[in-house]
Amino acid sequence: LFAGPVDFFKGVVAMDGLPPADRTEVCFAGRSNVGKSSLINALTGRNRLARASNTPGRTQEINFFTLGESRYIVDLPGYGYAEAPVAVVEKWQRLLKAYLAGRQTLRRAFVLIDARHGIKTVDEDILTLLDKSAVPFQVVLTKADKVKAKDQDRVLAQVRSALASHPAAFPEMVLTSSEKGEGIATLRAIIAGIV
Ligand code: GTP
Ligand code: MG
């Protein structure tokens, strides 16, 4: 699936700008700066397809990328802290939630969690929204290259126990590093099996 062409399709700022629901899709959600755009670049092998940055709040639109002829891969704006004006952030948070709750062709939401920090309150809010909307989701731990071996098991246990109370959650998590390539092939295979 990822061997074929991947292209930027559209940046969406309002629900009425969403592309027609004529392809299946997966999306990447998570706190600002958790590594969503970087992960899309790692998955597609295209370094600058999605714009990544050290500044939280880099992605401010819902970005659709075409994966072959019949799928989209979707990069979302982050939630939580962002270095952008409050009114702007509120607008994209509403859009993000409307998208997650109401996109018929969304096959799975990947919720990215920093492997150093585990699940926070802002993440819980999104996981609950996904439960209520019956959107199956799977946690992807990011920045594995930055987590110390001694902390890894503790964070994994925290995430596993938090997921137990979310009916829409897949129990399996994927540990990734966009920097080092860890977990990328695994995640590609998971996506190929869904869309
Ligand atoms: P927003 O669009 O602002 O919500 O952020 P995002 O979730 O798209 O994060 P982005 O991909 O822009 O990455 C944020 C920062 O984390 C960048 O400086 C990346 O280089 C860095 N980063 C992302 N993934 C990794 C990783 O696996 N390892 C390390 N060490 N850094 C990473
Ligand atoms: Mg981004």
CATH homologous superfamily (4th level) name:
P-loop containing nucleotide triphosphate hydrolases
Query: Which percent band covers the strand fraction?
Result: 15-25%
Order of helices and strands: EEHEEHEHEHEH
Q: What's the CATH first level?
A: Alpha Beta
Count of separate structural domains: 1
Count of DSSP H/I helices: 5
Q: Output the strand order for the largest sheet.
A: 1-3-4-2-5-6-7
Quaternary organization: single chain
Report on the structure:
The chain has 195 residues and is an alpha/beta fold. It has one domain (6-194): 3-Layer(aba) Sandwich (Rossmann fold), CATH 3.40.50.300. Helices cover 33% and strands 22% of the residues. It has 5 helices and 7 strands; from the N terminus they run ββαββαβαβαβα. It has helices spanning 36-44, 86-102, 121-132, 149-163, 184-194, and strands spanning 6-12, 24-30, 62-67, 71-75, 106-114, 137-142, 174-175. Strands 1-3-4-2-5-6-7 form a 7-stranded mixed β-sheet, sandwiched between helices. The chain binds guanosine-5'-triphosphate and magnesium ion.
